[in-house]
Write a structure and sequence with these properties.
mainly alpha; 12 helices; 0% strand
Length: 264
């Protein structure tokens, strides 16, 4: 137990020493500020282009900005947050292979399963802190400028995106236990996400895929961006959540099995 806790402490120290956590915190703070800032600036931006558009015969009506405007932008930014997540953690295991830093850990009696668990806990904690920090900033600004009460299913929508990030982390670990290059892990993770996105265009399959959770903003706006046909609602999102949770466990088990067989 003590070697495992020591390794978790080492992972946190390394995350701050390498400035990875600092960069993540800065980026997610900016993401949190971006949505309400853009919503607040929208009327002014429309006023700036109104005169030039009027000369072309196009009249822009008065824009009403509410908390819903900001939350819509928040969910549009979700994809960028996931891209940052994959880029920052794609080398979480492969860097250890290349530096040979895992060998002393194994020599001291730390099992491969303990290493994987410690790294997984550290990564999930970092994602949780950054993601909900971003959400908290956006929520606070929206509450200050407007009223969050007009938004429905906000907690469920935010959880769906969070769960999608958790699934991506488990995918990264499963692939990292197989490949030895951070770039290869990044490309493979992106390829899996893109592949499932295109498969999700099949209506009968889409509601069971983790990538469907990227449409979580539809719960807030009431619009459906799933193509073709199947609306992402409070009821229909449940299959995607269940399947994603199952796949998270499956990916972790696969990562454990593959890492035990991998030569370091």
């Amino acid at each position: 137990m003590k070697p495992g806790l020591a390794f978790i402490k080492k992972e946190w120290m390394e995350m701050f020493r390498s400035s990875k956590m600092t960069i993540l915190l800065i980026l997610f703070v900016l993401f949190g500020i971006m949505s309400p800032a853009l919503a607040k600036l929208t009327p002014a931006l429309y006023e700036m282009v109104a005169d030039s558009m009027k000369e072309q015969g196009i009249t822009i009506s008065q824009i009403e900005v509410t908390a819903l405007t900001s939350w819509t932008q928040y969910f549009k930014n979700a994809f960028m947050e996931l891209v940052v997540l994959v880029c920052m953690f794609s080398g979480i295991l492969t860097n250890e292979y290349q530096k040979g830093t895992l060998i002393p850990m194994y020599a001291r009696g730390l099992s491969r399963g303990s290493v994987l668990f410690a790294k997984m806990i550290t990564t999930l904690t970092a994602w949780t802190l950054c993601y909900y920090l971003c959400f908290g900033i956006t929520y606070a600004y929206n509450a200050y400028f407007w009223d969050n009460d007009i938004v429905s299913h906000l907690a469920l929508s935010v959880f769906c995106l969070y769960l999608l990030g958790v699934w991506l982390i488990t995918v990264i670990f499963a692939i990292s236990a197989l490949l030895s290059s951070g770039t290869a892990v990044m490309l493979a993770t992106g390829g899996i996400f893109a592949g499932l996105y295109f498969v999700g265009m099949i209506p009968k399959i889409s509601k069971y895929l983790p990538v469907t959770l990227l449409n979580a903003g539809d719960l807030v706006t009431g619009n459906s961006s799933i193509k073709p046909g199947t609306a992402f609602t409070e009821d229909t999102c449940l299959p995607a959540i269940i399947v994603t949770l199952v796949l998270c466990v499956f990916n972790y088990v696969i990562a454990c099995v593959l890492l035990k067989r991998k030569r370091v």
